[in-house]
Amino acid sequence: MIKKFKGLTFLIMLMMFALVAVGCSDSGGSKVDVGIVLPTKDEPRWVQDEQRFKDALKDSKYSTEILFSQGSSAKEKENVEALLNKGIKVLIITPHDGAAAASAVEAAKKEGVTVIAYDRLITDTDAVDYYVTFDSLAVGAAQAQYLVDNAKGSGVPLYLYAGAASDNNAFLFFEGAWKVLQPKIVDGTFKIANSSEAEKLKGSADLSRDQLGKIIGQVTTNWDANEAKNKAQTHLTAAGNDLKGDVAILAPNDGTARSIADVFASDSAIKSYFVTGQDAEKASVQYIIDGKQSMTVFKDVRTLVKDAMGMAVDILDGKTPETTGSYDNGSIEVKAKQTNVIVVDKDNVKSELIDSGYYEASEFTGLK
User: Does the pLDDT of residue 8 top 60, yes or no?
Assistant: First the structure.
C-alpha cells in the first residue's frame, strides 16, 4: 500500500511539473515581430502615436508591442531588452537621448534585429539601419520664415528658444531656423533679445555643432513647458522696454510655445507677438484659433507612422525599404525616409487639420 501511495504521489508530482512547464512555455512563447519604444507618455504627441501604431498593424499578420521610456535612458534600455526577449525582428525607437540610446540599439543589432530610428536620430553608433523622419531642417526654416514674413519695420526684438540639447532634432530645428533668421539679424530686421551667445555668432550663417550647442545651452527648454515658462519669465524680467513692444519668438514646439505665449501675453509692455510651434497639438490648434499662438508646423504623424510600419513590414517580408536621403549620425550615414511638413496658421487651420480628417471640428471652439 505504501509503495502504491509513493507511486501515486510521484505520478501526481510529475503531472504538476509538466503543467508548470507548459505554463512557463506558453507565457514565454508570445513572440512579437515589431518592438516599438517611445520616449514618454507625458506629451500628447507620443500617446497619439501609440494608437496610430496599433491601428497601422491591426489588419497585419505581424504583431507589435509598444513600450514607453518615460524620459529615462535606463528605462529605454530595459524596454529594448524586454522586447529582444520576445524575439522581435524589427525595433522602431524614438530615443530619449540620441547618444545614450546607442548602447540599447547595439544590443539589438547583436541579436540580428533591424533598427529604425523614429522621428529622432540615434547618434554616434553604426547600429542604426534606417531613420524615418520629418525634414527637421525644413521645420526650423518654416518657423523662422513665418517670423520673417510677419516682421514689420526694423529692430524687432527676437526671443530664441530651443529644444533639449540631448535631442539631435533640437540642433537640426535650430540650425534650419538660424539660416533663415541670421541674414535678417545682420540687416537689422531683428535684434537678439535673450542670448549673448547668439549675439556673438550673429555674423555667421553656418554654425558648427559646438556653436549651435552654445546657443542652445542658453535658450534650451528641454522640451518642458514649465522650464520654458520660467525661462521666458526670466528673460522678460531682465529685458528693457527697448526689447519689448512688438516681438518675435522662436519657440521650438507647441508645448513650449503655449507656455511662452502665456508669459508674453501677461506682460503689459508687450504690444504684440508672433510665436512659432510644431506638432499641431490640439491645445495649440485652439490657441491658434483664439489668436494666442501664431502658427504650428504640422507634421502629419499618420504619414510618419505609415512610413515606419511600411518599412518594418518590408523588412519582415525580406524586401529592401525605400529611402529618400541620409543623415550623418556622427558614425555613419543613416538611410532615411523623409516626410514633408506643412505650416498651419489661422488662415488654413480648418483646411489642413479639420477637412483632412486629422481632427474633428467638434474638438474646438470658435472655428470658422
Answer: no
pLDDT in tens, 210-241: 999 999 999 999 999 999 999 999 999 999 99
Does some domain include residue 329? yes
pTM above 0.85, yes or no: no
Q: In whole angstroms, what is the distance from residue 223 CA to residue 298 CA?
A: 17
For the chain, how many residues are written? Answer: 368
Task: Name residue 119's beta-bridge partners.
Answer: none
Spatial distance between the Cα atoms of 290 and 366, rounded to a whole number of angstroms = 7
Whether the Cβ atoms of residue 250 and residue 235 lie closer than 8 Å to each other: no
Strands 270-275 and 90-93: unpaired
User: In this predicted model, what pLDDT tens digit does every residue of 284-330 receive, in sequence order?
Assistant: 999 999 999 999 999 888 899 999 999 999 999 999 999 999 999 99
Query: Three-state SS for 47?
Result: helix
Residue 174 belongs to domain with CATH number:
3.40.50.2300
Within 10 angstroms of residue 188's Cβ, the number of other Cβ atoms is 11
Asked if residue 368 is part of any domain, the answer here is no
Cα–Cα distance, 245 to 186 (Å, whole number): 20
Q: How many CB atoms lie within 10 A of CB 61?
A: 8
Q: For residue 321, which of 312, 331, 334 has the smallest C-alpha distance?
A: 312
For residue 245, the cross-strand partners are 270
Cα separation, 300 vs 223, in Å, equals 20
CA–CA gap between residue 319 and residue 327 (Å, rounded): 22
Residue 247 scores a pLDDT above 50: yes
Same domain, 234 and 276: yes
Tell me the average pLDDT across 202-208: 96
Within a domain: 9: no
Vertex 335: Cα angle to 223 and 163 (nearest 5): 10
Are 292 and 168 members of one domain?
yes
| Four-residue CA torsion sign, 322, 307, 97, 233 | positive
Is residue 261 assigned to a domain? yes
The x, y and z cell numbers of residue 60, run together, are: 497585419
> Domain residues for 357?
136-299+344-363
Alpha carbon distance 245, 271 (integer Å): 5
pLDDT at 26: 36
Question: Which contiguous run of DSSP H or E holds residue 216?
Answer: helix 209-219
Number of domains in the chain: 2
